[in-house]
Amino acid sequence: MTATLQQTERELAPQLKTIKPRRVSILGSTGSVGVSTLELIDFACSTGSAQLEIVALTANSNVELLARQAIKYRAAFVAIADEGQFAELSELLFGTGIKCGAGTTALIEAASYPADWVMAAIVGAAGLQPTLTAARSGADIAFANKECLVCAGGVFLAAMREGGGRLLPVDSEHNAIFQVYDFERPERITRLLLTASGGPFRTWTQAQMANVTVEQAVDHPNWSMGAKISVDSATMMNKGLEVIEAARLFPTPANKIEVVVHPQSVIHSMVEYVDGSVLAQMGTPDMRTPIASALAWPDRVESPSTKLDFGSLGELSFEIPDETKFPALRIARQALDIDGLAPTVLNAANELAVAAFLNRHLKFLDISHVTEQVLASFDFGSTAAFGAELLLEDVLETDTEARHKAAEEIRKHMI
Ligand SMILES: NC(=O)c1ccc[n+]([C@@H]2O[C@H](COP(=O)([O-])OP(=O)(O)OC[C@H]3O[C@@H](n4cnc5c(N)ncnc54)[C@H](OP(=O)(O)O)[C@@H]3O)[C@@H](O)[C@H]2O)c1
To answer: What is the pTM of this model?
Structure first.
């Protein structure tokens, strides 16, 4: 028996060594997920387990890092959203032969460059148009930009169907569920359990949270991430957005998607089956693991992330989330129950409120307050249900209206 297994391993070894060569684009290459993706690509190429060609890279305003990445990886095209940075980008890339552009049209151009695998890692609804373009192109989409699916779920899924590429979740929770979800027998699944670290204020009272600083809010206990998602984790809106994301990605009813606080962030999420079996995916809190999973799926590729050391893990604990202390979770569920354009409003209001907090114009607890007020100010009576497929124009119009209302609401609470 052992001899047979060893022989099989030897036969399999060459196939496990390399994953298919691919053309890769990274939308949001200068951010936390973008940089982790490039680190993983460096590692995979250095170990010989992948041969990847970087096609297009994008950023918002970090022109120096974008230019360095473009030159290092010999990208074909780079786009910067901030048009004021175009002259500097052109100068930094002068003589390299790398093409570049600025503004939304350039981001869309970057997303339409022929690629096999596109990492969607722009933060916020700003990623919507380029991510839709990449989805329609037929590339596999490694999907991190959850706001895109929250604000335009049906539109985005229709674009994926049109393109025919695979949608590979990168958010660690959804990647975990994806790995253990039986897509052939979804009716045998009784619950999805999204784990949440609880963020930096899990044990704080609301009174303590009243005067939270930006520095405290972005200091996540387990994960190193961009500022917006770090604040979302602190309010727990991140988990609310993830519940909506899970409802879009998996054919399990929304009322069977639960959140469990798990402060150690070792179990990244779980799927419960009718027989009582609960399948979990575990790992250290390092985005290079879910990115590696999305890069090689259904194959596996080695990642530089630290592996779990069970001897030193200690206790794994679980708690029910406190929706009185963290109302964002309840507000997000409310938006999902209404469905249609309510998640669009939720996302837009939250984005603006988080930006105001990061600019020190709004208090931490007012982020959820503003979001709830804006959601309540809309009459969704005639909104088409999610299944009836919204139009992109409806999404963009509602997004703009929600941002106007959020700006008004923020002015009322301005510090
Ligand atoms: N970080 C994580 O561990 C993690 C985990 C799961 C899911 N996600 C999701 O992944 C996405 C990215 O998160 P992140 O933490 O990597 O964010 P981040 O560090 O803030 O990076 C965001 C990226 O998007 C670019 N960007 C920002 N605003 C833009 C705009 N208006 N137009 C075009 N590009 C813009 C940024 O460019 P500049 O650098 O020039 O600003 C950067 O490249 C988010 O949707 C987040 O929820 C992140």
So the answer is: 0.95
